[in-house]
Amino acid sequence: MQIYLDHGATSPARPEVIELMTEVMRSQWGNPSSLHAWGERSTMAIERARLQVASLLNADPEGIIFTSGGTESDNMALMGIARQYRTPQHMIISSVEHSAVRLPAQYLEQHGWEITRLSVDRDGKVSPQDLGRSLRPNTVLVSVIAAQNEVGTIQPIDKLGQICRNANVPFHTDAVQAIAKIDINVQTLPIDLLSLSAHKFYGTQGIGALYINPLIIQKHGLVPLNLGGGQERGYRSGTQAVAAIAGLGLAAELAAKELMSESQRLTKLRDRLYALLDDIPDLVPTGSSDRLPHHLSFYHKYLDGRRLVRELNYAGIAISSGSACSSGAIEPSAILLAMGYSDSEARNSIRLTLGKSTTEADIEWTALAIHQILSRV
């Protein structure tokens, strides 16, 4: 029995997406920048996808810029804002950001920028009051992840964004984990820049988008990371990956249609798995009750998270560990450390993320396998 519970890492492309991408590669393979019919067919595929992604966010299609994925989108947001300043300024991120935000901020800090890292509570949440106190006259961007990838905690994006809007500071959110799991409406949420990635909601790897609020960015500016042919309204030069973009568009359209029903289904399965694991005294939940519908996270008091990942893999079940391995050395999860957990607790963390293929039988079997493995510890 094979059970995949690592959708937070990547999700399998939907059959509909694969079928569409195959057809696009056969019949719409022209260069979108070309003026002839072959180019026009490719342009039509791209613009249809732009509308589909915009609809998922309730965004202006003019603000959708296609990228290679979440990492590029995050870098485009932070570095694109930073590059327009001749002298270093001040930027704010949270202490639980994905490395695609954390490392660009670290790079800027090494080059003279002031970076404030907002602390979080034991649930992994940022305090809006802390953000308000951290703003400075030279703050040029705030970036806070919409939902944390390791522990699933959903941030109060509405409150954080409004504080930034009131202070006339652009607000970016890495929504890679949140898109298609919770409703994100950029017309009602004060979001100026938003990153997403197709492979987290059944598109393919290597394609994503950055949403840019046209009104805000016209005022504050955003410098492109790469220069060239001026594609994507000049923000992201390079011949577009037409088939991948078309697949992203279809994945977004299907996600929008299924968002409510799938969220409810996954929440029930998630809560059922929590209940089945509740009697294991040394398995401790992490994160907030206000969390992504498909997401569970724990640490074990005595068992290294990577060992549990391996043991479950032998049983045909895929999960992930929050700890990182570099040059053979196991490092504790930086996220859990920021949340106040000890080194050993942070090393022993695991994450289970459900998806469209997950059934109640999968949940029952996974719980049984975890019980059996931990009974031997």
Written overview of the protein:
With 377 residues, the chain is of the alpha/beta class. The chain folds into two domains: 3-9 and 259-374, Aspartate Aminotransferase, domain 1, CATH 3.90.1150.10; 15-254, Type I PLP-dependent aspartate aminotransferase-like (Major domain) (Aspartate Aminotransferase, domain 2). The chain contains twelve helices and 15 strands. It has helices spanning 15-27, 37-57, 70-82, 99-110, 128-134, 157-166, 214-220, 242-277, 305-314, 334-338, 343-347, 360-374, and strands at residues 3-4, 64-67, 90-94, 114-118, 139-143, 171-174, 193-197, 208-212, 283-285, 295-300, 317-318, 320-321, 324-326, 329-331, 349-353. Strands 2-8-7-6-5-3-4 form a seven-stranded mixed sheet, with helices on both faces. It has a four-stranded antiparallel sheet with strand order 9-10-15-12. Strands 1-11 form a two-stranded parallel ribbon. α4 links the parallel β3 and β4. The protein is globular and about 65 Å long. Belongs to the class-V pyridoxal-phosphate-dependent aminotransferase family. NifS/IscS subfamily.
